[in-house]
Amino acid sequence: MITTVTLNVSVDKAYKIKGSVRPGTVSRVEECTNTAGGKGLNVARIVDLCGEEVQAAGFAGGFNGGYVRKMLDEDGIQHQFTEVKSETRSCINILAEDGTSTEYLEPGAPVTEEEWQRFLQDFAWMTENSSVITISGSAPQGLEAECYKTLIEEVKRQGKQVILDTSGVYLEEGLKAVPTMIKPNQEELEALLGTRIQNRQELIKAGKQLKNWGIPFVVISAGADGALLICEDGIYHGRPPKLEAVNPVGCGDSMVGAFAVAMSRSKTPEEALAFAVAVSAANAMNEGTGRFQSEDMEQILGNVSVERIQD
Ligand SMILES: Nc1ncnc2c1ncn2[C@@H]1O[C@H](COP(=O)(O)OP(=O)(O)OP(=O)(O)O)[C@@H](O)[C@H]1O
Ligand SMILES: [Mg+2]
Protein backbone atom coordinates (compact mmCIF):
# COMPACT_ATOMS: atom_id res chain seq x y z
CA MET A 1 0.00 0.00 0.00
CA ILE A 2 1.16 3.53 -0.83
CA THR A 3 -0.26 6.53 1.06
CA THR A 4 -0.34 9.94 -0.60
CA VAL A 5 -0.63 13.07 1.55
CA THR A 6 -2.49 16.09 0.12
CA LEU A 7 -3.13 18.65 2.85
CA ASN A 8 -4.36 21.31 0.40
CA VAL A 9 -7.09 19.44 -1.50
CA SER A 10 -9.25 21.45 -3.94
CA VAL A 11 -11.94 21.14 -6.56
CA ASP A 12 -10.00 22.21 -9.67
CA LYS A 13 -12.18 23.82 -12.32
CA ALA A 14 -10.86 24.24 -15.85
CA TYR A 15 -12.94 26.81 -17.79
CA LYS A 16 -12.54 26.89 -21.58
CA ILE A 17 -13.53 30.26 -23.03
CA LYS A 18 -13.61 31.74 -26.55
CA GLY A 19 -11.11 34.51 -27.37
CA SER A 20 -9.19 36.07 -24.48
CA VAL A 21 -9.81 36.85 -20.80
CA ARG A 22 -11.42 40.31 -20.73
CA PRO A 23 -11.20 41.90 -17.26
CA GLY A 24 -14.31 43.75 -16.13
CA THR A 25 -16.72 41.94 -18.50
CA VAL A 26 -19.06 38.93 -18.28
CA SER A 27 -17.79 35.85 -20.14
CA ARG A 28 -19.60 32.62 -21.01
CA VAL A 29 -17.74 29.40 -20.23
CA GLU A 30 -17.80 27.00 -23.22
CA GLU A 31 -16.74 23.95 -21.27
CA CYS A 32 -16.08 23.27 -17.59
CA THR A 33 -14.09 20.29 -16.32
CA ASN A 34 -13.90 19.53 -12.58
CA THR A 35 -11.03 17.47 -11.15
CA ALA A 36 -10.08 16.31 -7.66
CA GLY A 37 -7.13 18.69 -7.26
CA GLY A 38 -4.00 18.92 -5.15
CA LYS A 39 -0.61 17.52 -6.15
CA GLY A 40 -0.89 14.45 -3.92
CA LEU A 41 -4.09 13.40 -5.68
CA ASN A 42 -2.22 13.42 -9.01
CA VAL A 43 0.31 11.14 -7.34
CA ALA A 44 -2.53 8.86 -6.16
CA ARG A 45 -3.99 8.55 -9.68
CA ILE A 46 -0.57 7.66 -11.07
CA VAL A 47 0.09 5.00 -8.41
CA ASP A 48 -3.32 3.50 -9.16
CA LEU A 49 -2.64 3.50 -12.92
CA CYS A 50 0.68 1.74 -12.23
CA GLY A 51 -1.34 -1.04 -10.61
CA GLU A 52 -0.41 -0.53 -6.95
CA GLU A 53 -2.82 -0.11 -4.06
CA VAL A 54 -3.10 3.49 -2.92
CA GLN A 55 -4.93 5.47 -0.25
CA ALA A 56 -5.23 9.26 -0.23
CA ALA A 57 -4.81 11.15 3.03
CA GLY A 58 -5.55 14.83 3.63
CA PHE A 59 -8.28 17.21 4.76
CA ALA A 60 -11.74 17.47 3.21
CA GLY A 61 -14.79 19.43 4.32
CA GLY A 62 -18.26 20.54 3.31
CA PHE A 63 -19.91 19.99 -0.08
CA ASN A 64 -16.66 20.35 -2.02
CA GLY A 65 -15.03 17.80 0.28
CA GLY A 66 -17.84 15.38 -0.58
CA TYR A 67 -17.42 16.17 -4.26
CA VAL A 68 -13.69 15.42 -4.16
CA ARG A 69 -14.45 12.09 -2.46
CA LYS A 70 -17.02 11.29 -5.18
CA MET A 71 -14.56 12.08 -7.99
CA LEU A 72 -11.94 9.82 -6.38
CA ASP A 73 -14.59 7.08 -6.01
CA GLU A 74 -15.27 7.35 -9.74
CA ASP A 75 -11.55 6.79 -10.38
CA GLY A 76 -11.58 3.85 -7.94
CA ILE A 77 -9.10 5.52 -5.59
CA GLN A 78 -9.39 4.84 -1.85
CA HIS A 79 -9.42 7.91 0.39
CA GLN A 80 -9.35 8.42 4.13
CA PHE A 81 -9.63 12.18 4.43
CA THR A 82 -9.77 13.77 7.85
CA GLU A 83 -13.07 15.68 8.01
CA VAL A 84 -12.74 19.42 8.65
CA LYS A 85 -15.39 22.00 9.47
CA SER A 86 -14.56 24.42 6.65
CA GLU A 87 -15.47 23.99 3.00
CA THR A 88 -12.75 22.49 0.74
CA ARG A 89 -11.49 25.21 -1.61
CA SER A 90 -11.95 25.57 -5.37
CA CYS A 91 -9.22 26.61 -7.81
CA ILE A 92 -10.12 28.00 -11.22
CA ASN A 93 -7.97 27.82 -14.35
CA ILE A 94 -9.30 29.83 -17.30
CA LEU A 95 -8.01 28.32 -20.53
CA ALA A 96 -8.64 30.90 -23.24
CA GLU A 97 -8.73 30.28 -26.98
CA ASP A 98 -5.66 32.56 -27.34
CA GLY A 99 -3.62 29.90 -25.51
CA THR A 100 -3.31 31.70 -22.17
CA SER A 101 -3.97 30.11 -18.79
CA THR A 102 -5.21 32.36 -15.95
CA GLU A 103 -5.46 30.80 -12.50
CA TYR A 104 -7.38 31.86 -9.40
CA LEU A 105 -6.45 29.82 -6.32
CA GLU A 106 -8.66 30.14 -3.22
CA PRO A 107 -6.62 30.31 -0.01
CA GLY A 108 -8.70 27.66 1.79
CA ALA A 109 -9.92 28.13 5.35
CA PRO A 110 -7.44 27.59 8.21
CA VAL A 111 -7.12 24.11 9.70
CA THR A 112 -7.60 24.12 13.48
CA GLU A 113 -5.23 22.54 16.01
CA GLU A 114 -7.89 19.93 16.89
CA GLU A 115 -8.25 18.97 13.19
CA TRP A 116 -4.47 18.67 12.81
CA GLN A 117 -4.30 16.39 15.86
CA ARG A 118 -7.03 14.17 14.35
CA PHE A 119 -5.10 14.09 11.09
CA LEU A 120 -1.96 12.95 12.93
CA GLN A 121 -3.90 10.04 14.44
CA ASP A 122 -5.29 9.06 11.01
CA PHE A 123 -1.83 9.41 9.46
CA ALA A 124 -0.24 7.12 12.05
CA TRP A 125 -2.51 4.17 11.23
CA MET A 126 -2.38 4.84 7.48
CA THR A 127 1.42 4.71 7.72
CA GLU A 128 1.17 1.41 9.58
CA ASN A 129 -0.52 -0.28 6.62
CA SER A 130 1.78 1.29 3.98
CA SER A 131 5.29 0.66 2.71
CA VAL A 132 5.81 4.07 1.08
CA ILE A 133 4.32 7.50 1.87
CA THR A 134 4.39 10.52 -0.45
CA ILE A 135 3.96 14.10 0.75
CA SER A 136 3.22 16.72 -1.92
CA GLY A 137 2.52 20.40 -2.32
CA SER A 138 1.81 23.19 0.13
CA ALA A 139 -0.16 23.12 3.38
CA PRO A 140 -3.32 25.06 4.28
CA GLN A 141 -3.30 28.09 6.56
CA GLY A 142 -3.22 27.32 10.25
CA LEU A 143 -0.45 24.73 9.99
CA GLU A 144 3.15 25.37 11.01
CA ALA A 145 5.99 25.21 8.46
CA GLU A 146 7.22 22.11 10.35
CA CYS A 147 4.05 20.11 9.60
CA TYR A 148 5.83 17.85 7.07
CA LYS A 149 8.77 17.39 9.43
CA THR A 150 6.32 15.97 11.97
CA LEU A 151 4.87 13.55 9.37
CA ILE A 152 8.31 12.41 8.18
CA GLU A 153 9.38 11.75 11.77
CA GLU A 154 6.32 9.50 12.24
CA VAL A 155 7.04 7.58 9.00
CA LYS A 156 10.65 7.03 10.03
CA ARG A 157 9.65 6.01 13.55
CA GLN A 158 7.66 3.23 11.85
CA GLY A 159 10.60 2.30 9.60
CA LYS A 160 8.79 3.13 6.33
CA GLN A 161 9.98 5.11 3.29
CA VAL A 162 8.87 8.67 2.50
CA ILE A 163 9.12 10.93 -0.56
CA LEU A 164 8.84 14.69 0.03
CA ASP A 165 7.90 16.91 -2.94
CA THR A 166 7.32 20.45 -1.81
CA SER A 167 8.99 23.87 -1.87
CA GLY A 168 9.90 26.91 0.22
CA VAL A 169 9.64 26.69 4.01
CA TYR A 170 7.86 23.31 3.89
CA LEU A 171 10.84 21.80 2.05
CA GLU A 172 13.36 23.56 4.26
CA GLU A 173 11.72 22.33 7.47
CA GLY A 174 10.80 18.88 6.10
CA LEU A 175 14.44 18.21 5.16
CA LYS A 176 15.38 18.44 8.83
CA ALA A 177 13.63 15.09 9.37
CA VAL A 178 15.64 13.57 6.45
CA PRO A 179 13.10 12.00 4.06
CA THR A 180 14.07 8.95 1.97
CA MET A 181 13.71 10.90 -1.29
CA ILE A 182 13.13 14.46 -2.45
CA LYS A 183 12.31 15.60 -6.00
CA PRO A 184 12.94 19.31 -6.43
CA ASN A 185 13.06 20.93 -9.87
CA GLN A 186 15.85 23.41 -10.55
CA GLU A 187 13.83 26.42 -9.38
CA GLU A 188 12.97 24.76 -6.05
CA LEU A 189 16.59 23.73 -5.58
CA GLU A 190 17.87 27.24 -6.27
CA ALA A 191 15.41 28.71 -3.78
CA LEU A 192 16.44 26.13 -1.17
CA LEU A 193 20.19 26.67 -1.55
CA GLY A 194 19.97 30.39 -2.32
CA THR A 195 22.13 30.07 -5.45
CA ARG A 196 21.71 30.24 -9.22
CA ILE A 197 22.44 27.02 -11.09
CA GLN A 198 23.87 27.55 -14.60
CA ASN A 199 24.70 24.08 -15.92
CA ARG A 200 24.57 20.31 -15.27
CA GLN A 201 27.84 20.42 -13.33
CA GLU A 202 26.36 22.87 -10.83
CA LEU A 203 23.13 20.88 -10.70
CA ILE A 204 25.10 17.77 -9.73
CA LYS A 205 27.04 19.74 -7.13
CA ALA A 206 23.77 20.98 -5.58
CA GLY A 207 22.34 17.45 -5.59
CA LYS A 208 25.46 16.09 -3.90
CA GLN A 209 25.16 18.78 -1.24
CA LEU A 210 21.65 17.54 -0.39
CA LYS A 211 22.80 13.92 -0.48
CA ASN A 212 25.45 14.91 2.08
CA TRP A 213 22.68 16.12 4.39
CA GLY A 214 21.79 12.42 4.65
CA ILE A 215 18.99 12.14 2.07
CA PRO A 216 19.50 8.73 0.41
CA PHE A 217 17.83 9.58 -2.93
CA VAL A 218 17.98 13.08 -4.40
CA VAL A 219 16.09 13.42 -7.68
CA ILE A 220 16.32 16.68 -9.61
CA SER A 221 13.76 16.87 -12.39
CA ALA A 222 14.45 18.93 -15.51
CA GLY A 223 11.32 18.76 -17.69
CA ALA A 224 11.95 17.44 -21.22
CA ASP A 225 15.62 16.85 -20.28
CA GLY A 226 14.58 14.12 -17.82
CA ALA A 227 16.00 13.85 -14.32
CA LEU A 228 19.19 13.38 -12.30
CA LEU A 229 19.33 10.82 -9.49
CA ILE A 230 22.04 11.19 -6.88
CA CYS A 231 22.28 8.23 -4.50
CA GLU A 232 24.74 5.84 -2.84
CA ASP A 233 25.01 3.74 -6.03
CA GLY A 234 26.12 6.73 -8.10
CA ILE A 235 24.81 9.62 -10.17
CA TYR A 236 22.48 8.90 -13.07
CA HIS A 237 20.84 11.00 -15.77
CA GLY A 238 17.59 9.52 -17.13
CA ARG A 239 16.35 11.05 -20.39
CA PRO A 240 13.05 10.52 -22.19
CA PRO A 241 13.05 10.30 -25.99
CA LYS A 242 11.84 13.37 -27.93
CA LEU A 243 8.06 13.44 -27.82
CA GLU A 244 5.04 15.63 -28.50
CA ALA A 245 4.04 17.07 -25.10
CA VAL A 246 0.30 17.75 -24.87
CA ASN A 247 0.00 18.79 -21.21
CA PRO A 248 3.09 18.66 -18.97
CA VAL A 249 1.13 19.80 -15.87
CA GLY A 250 1.53 17.18 -13.13
CA CYS A 251 4.68 15.65 -14.62
CA GLY A 252 6.54 16.14 -11.34
CA ASP A 253 3.70 14.44 -9.45
CA SER A 254 3.75 11.59 -11.96
CA MET A 255 7.44 11.14 -11.36
CA VAL A 256 6.88 11.01 -7.58
CA GLY A 257 4.09 8.44 -8.01
CA ALA A 258 6.27 6.27 -10.22
CA PHE A 259 9.21 6.42 -7.79
CA ALA A 260 6.86 5.42 -4.93
CA VAL A 261 5.73 2.41 -6.99
CA ALA A 262 9.34 1.50 -7.84
CA MET A 263 10.32 1.76 -4.16
CA SER A 264 7.44 -0.48 -3.10
CA ARG A 265 8.59 -3.02 -5.72
CA SER A 266 12.23 -2.81 -4.49
CA LYS A 267 13.56 -1.78 -7.91
CA THR A 268 17.23 -0.80 -8.31
CA PRO A 269 17.91 2.96 -8.51
CA GLU A 270 18.58 2.72 -12.26
CA GLU A 271 15.38 0.78 -12.92
CA ALA A 272 13.40 3.18 -10.74
CA LEU A 273 14.77 6.20 -12.61
CA ALA A 274 13.98 4.74 -16.05
CA PHE A 275 10.44 3.84 -14.93
CA ALA A 276 9.81 7.28 -13.36
CA VAL A 277 11.06 9.09 -16.47
CA ALA A 278 8.84 6.92 -18.68
CA VAL A 279 5.70 7.40 -16.55
CA SER A 280 6.18 11.17 -16.22
CA ALA A 281 6.92 11.58 -19.94
CA ALA A 282 3.79 9.54 -20.75
CA ASN A 283 1.83 11.97 -18.53
CA ALA A 284 3.16 14.85 -20.67
CA MET A 285 1.59 13.13 -23.70
CA ASN A 286 -1.81 12.93 -22.00
CA GLU A 287 -4.46 15.67 -21.88
CA GLY A 288 -5.29 14.77 -18.25
CA THR A 289 -3.24 15.72 -15.17
CA GLY A 290 -1.77 12.75 -13.33
CA ARG A 291 -2.84 10.32 -16.05
CA PHE A 292 -1.06 8.29 -18.73
CA GLN A 293 -1.71 5.57 -21.29
CA SER A 294 0.09 2.29 -20.60
CA GLU A 295 0.99 1.91 -24.29
CA ASP A 296 2.69 5.35 -24.30
CA MET A 297 4.58 4.48 -21.12
CA GLU A 298 5.77 1.08 -22.40
CA GLN A 299 6.91 2.60 -25.68
CA ILE A 300 8.80 5.43 -23.94
CA LEU A 301 10.35 3.03 -21.41
CA GLY A 302 11.97 1.14 -24.29
CA ASN A 303 13.59 4.41 -25.41
CA VAL A 304 14.62 6.01 -22.10
CA SER A 305 18.38 6.36 -21.71
CA VAL A 306 20.02 6.11 -18.29
CA GLU A 307 23.58 7.38 -18.24
CA ARG A 308 25.84 6.85 -15.23
CA ILE A 309 27.69 10.14 -15.10
CA GLN A 310 29.98 9.95 -12.09
CA ASP A 311 30.82 7.79 -9.15
N1 LIG B 1 8.07 17.96 -22.28
C1 LIG B 1 8.41 16.80 -21.68
N2 LIG B 1 8.79 15.74 -22.44
C2 LIG B 1 9.15 14.57 -21.85
N3 LIG B 1 9.16 14.37 -20.52
C3 LIG B 1 8.79 15.38 -19.73
C4 LIG B 1 8.40 16.65 -20.26
N4 LIG B 1 8.09 17.46 -19.22
C5 LIG B 1 8.28 16.72 -18.10
N5 LIG B 1 8.70 15.48 -18.39
C6 LIG B 1 9.02 14.38 -17.45
O1 LIG B 1 8.45 14.69 -16.18
C7 LIG B 1 9.47 14.84 -15.19
C8 LIG B 1 9.08 15.92 -14.20
O2 LIG B 1 8.86 17.12 -14.89
P1 LIG B 1 9.28 18.55 -14.33
O3 LIG B 1 10.74 18.61 -14.14
O4 LIG B 1 8.65 19.56 -15.21
O5 LIG B 1 8.59 18.53 -12.88
P2 LIG B 1 7.99 19.70 -11.98
O6 LIG B 1 8.67 20.99 -12.33
O7 LIG B 1 8.07 19.24 -10.59
O8 LIG B 1 6.48 19.72 -12.47
P3 LIG B 1 5.10 19.88 -11.65
O9 LIG B 1 5.44 20.16 -10.21
O10 LIG B 1 4.42 21.03 -12.32
O11 LIG B 1 4.35 18.63 -11.83
C9 LIG B 1 10.75 15.11 -15.97
O12 LIG B 1 11.87 14.70 -15.21
C10 LIG B 1 10.53 14.26 -17.22
O13 LIG B 1 10.84 12.90 -16.98
MG1 LIG C 1 6.91 19.81 -8.91
TrEMBL record:
EC annotation from Swiss-Prot or TrEMBL: 2.7.1.144
Keyword Ribosomal protein attributed: no
Alphabetically ordered keywords of this record: ATP-binding, Kinase, Lactose metabolism, Nucleotide-binding, Transferase
Gene Ontology CC terms, in alphabetical order: cytosol
Known catalytic reactions: beta-D-fructose 1-phosphate + ATP = beta-D-fructose 1,6-bisphosphate + ADP + H(+); D-tagatofuranose 6-phosphate + ATP = D-tagatofuranose 1,6-bisphosphate + ADP + H(+)
GO MF: 1-phosphofructokinase activity; ATP binding; tagatose-6-phosphate kinase activity
Keyword Zinc-finger listed: no
Single GO biological process annotation from the record: small molecule metabolic process
Annotated metabolic or biological route of this protein: Carbohydrate metabolism; D-tagatose 6-phosphate degradation; D-glyceraldehyde 3-phosphate and glycerone phosphate from D-tagatose 6-phosphate: step 1/2
Domain Carbohydrate kinase PfkB: 8-291
Residue ranges of the TM segments: none
Top-level taxon of the source organism: Bacteria
Purpose: Catalyzes the ATP-dependent phosphorylation of fructose-l-phosphate to fructose-l,6-bisphosphate.
UniProt similarity note: Belongs to the carbohydrate kinase PfkB family. LacC subfamily.
Listed PANTHER family: 1-PHOSPHOFRUCTOKINASE-RELATED, ATP-DEPENDENT 6-PHOSPHOFRUCTOKINASE ISOZYME 2
Name of the protein this chain belongs to: Tagatose-6-phosphate kinase
Organism of provenance: Anaerostipes rhamnosivorans
